[in-house]
């Protein structure tokens, strides 16, 4: 479907009345605050992110403040947000930035440790007001339904950035970008979209096609793309990290062995934490967070 079929102004108007009061959207939030929020929000619900983000901003309001923290302090403060390597990437960013300002261009932002295309675009757009496409899972889903008539978005493709750029209005582009993202998060949701609340209801290609169900092979492929958690090495890694975060001194292997019954999986998870720099082993064969 022609990209002009989407009414960007309707989405912006909807957003003005429906937007969530997320702490990093409030006036006065720095570029560092936006960067931290974007890294924390990757694959993590914003309801879990918000209180942790506020604690971080009070404790480490600037990259220079954050750079003085130890890795152990950072990992303890990260808590159970998941994917703790993100916390270390932020720490590495702070080491590189020191007292320098957060870059404003996508290219400069992507040069920072662990900052990918999406995060760089989000900071450039949402803080610096650059009219650049910001495409996350929510945006991809809105466009798949409203423009293509597909209930499920396909795997990420380079073409999506091109289309998102074509859709950006000349006026209020950054506002539109956050609005369409919010639409996907609150209304055009993955499992149970609330179509009657959608500002695009009358023009949505999926609605006009009669809301067709995805084919069985598409559903199967989508399920494969969704990462399960229960019983995975990621869950075991999290349980081991809980032990290390709670301990004030290095812990013995026996303290780790009690968290999971499968010895082989437990050893594999512990080895991966050591390899990722999220845990360390001392001369007495005890384990602790990075010094």
Task: Write up what this structure looks like.
One of its GO terms (molecular function) is oxidized purine DNA binding. It catalyses: Hydrolyzes free adenine bases from 7,8-dihydro-8-oxoguanine:adenine mismatched double-stranded DNA, leaving an apurinic site. Keywords: DNA damage, DNA repair, Glycosidase, Hydrolase, Iron, Iron-sulfur, Metal-binding. The protein is mainly α and 291 residues long. The chain folds into 3 domains: 30-126, Endonuclease III, domain 1 (Orthogonal Bundle); 137-225, Orthogonal Bundle (Endonuclease Iii, domain 2); 233-288. It contains 16 helices and 2 strands. A hairpin with a 5-residue loop joins strand 1 (280-281) and strand 2 (287-288). It is globular and about 65 Å long.
The helix content, as a percent range, equals: 40-55%
Q: Main beta sheet: strand number and arrangement?
A: 2 strands, antiparallel
**DSSP summary, beta strand count:** 2
Number of helices: 16
Using only C-alpha atoms, the radius of gyration works out to: 21 Å
Indicate the CATH topology of the largest domain.
Answer: Endonuclease III, domain 1
CATH class of the largest domain: Mainly Alpha
Q: What structural class results from the helix and strand content? A: mainly alpha
The number of domains is 3
- Strand order, sheet with most strands: 1-2
Shape: globular
CATH architecture of the largest domain: Orthogonal Bundle
**Average pLDDT score:** 92
Can you tell me the CATH superfamily of the largest domain? Hypothetical protein, domain 2
Terminal CA distance reads: 55 Å
Order of helices and strands: HHHHHHHHHHHHHHHHEE
Q: Which range does the strand content fall in?
A: under 5%
Task: List low-confidence stretches.
Answer: none
Organism: Corynebacterium lizhenjunii
GO molecular function, one term: metal ion binding
GO biological process, one term: mismatch repair
InterPro entries: DNA_glycosylase, Endonuclease3_FeS-loop_motif, HhH-GPD_domain, HhH_base_excis_C, HhH_motif, MIG/MutY
């Amino acid at each position: 479907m022609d990209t002009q079929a989407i009414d960007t102004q309707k989405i912006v108007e909807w957003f003005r009345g429906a937007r969530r009061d997320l702490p990093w959207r409030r006036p006065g939030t720095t570029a560092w605050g936006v960067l931290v929020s974007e890294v924390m929000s990757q694959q993590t619900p914003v309801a879990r992110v918000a209180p942790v983000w506020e604690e971080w901003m009070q404790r480490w309001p600037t990259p220079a403040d954050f750079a003085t923290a130890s890795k152990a302090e950072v990992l303890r403060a990260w808590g159970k947000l998941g994917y703790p390597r993100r916390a270390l990437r932020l720490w590495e960013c702070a080491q590189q930035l020191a007292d320098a300002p957060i870059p404003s261009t996508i290219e400069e932002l992507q040069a920072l440790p662990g900052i990918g295309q999406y995060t760089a675009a989000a900071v450039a757009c949402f803080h610096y007001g650059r009219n650049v496409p910001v495409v996350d899972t929510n945006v991809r889903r809105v466009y798949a339904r409203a423009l293509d008539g597909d209930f499920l978005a396909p795997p990420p493709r380079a073409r999506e950035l091109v289309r998102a750029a074509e859709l950006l209005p000349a006026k209020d582009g950054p506002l539109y970008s956050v609005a369409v993202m919010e639409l996907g998060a609150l209304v055009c949701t993955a499992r149970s979209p609330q179509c009657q609340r959608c500002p695009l209801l009358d023009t949505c290609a999926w609605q006009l096609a009669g809301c067709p169900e995805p084919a069985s092979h598409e559903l199967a492929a989508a399920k494969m793309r969704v990462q399960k958690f229960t019983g995975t090495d990621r869950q075991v890694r999290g349980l081991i990290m809980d032990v290390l975060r709670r301990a004030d001194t290095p812990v013995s292997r026996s303290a780790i062995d009690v968290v999971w019954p499968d010895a082989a999986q437990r050893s594999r998870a512990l080895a991966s934490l050591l390899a990722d720099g999220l845990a360390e082993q001392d001369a007495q064969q005890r384990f602790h967070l990075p010094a």
